[in-house]
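TL;DR need structure tokens for one chain.
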Amino acid sequence: MEYERILIETDCDMEIAAVVWAGINERGELVVEHEFEDYEDEGNNFRRTALLDKEETAKMAECLAVEVNDLPEELYDEFGELSGVGVPSDAECIFADVLDFILDCGAKYSLK
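>> reply
TL;DR here they are.
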């Protein structure tokens, strides 16, 4: 990632950990990822990634009147939480809120 910002990271002392981060990759695309890790049951682990292609990333930056490379910081300002104090459900909610925000900006993403 060229530019990356953690939006929320859960308490690392819990049996379940989650993190949501946003970044701009080397192709100028916005990537928002939600990682979930269950230390007691690895079968529950997952990673969801929302990817905006370069054109959609530019559309979102234009809507917010920021540079493409400033999008992760803009998302942090809008949705960021103090790291290490959230719970996994907080991370899930923030990921969903970010996806809604992307759509509100008129941009589209693919979910993997």
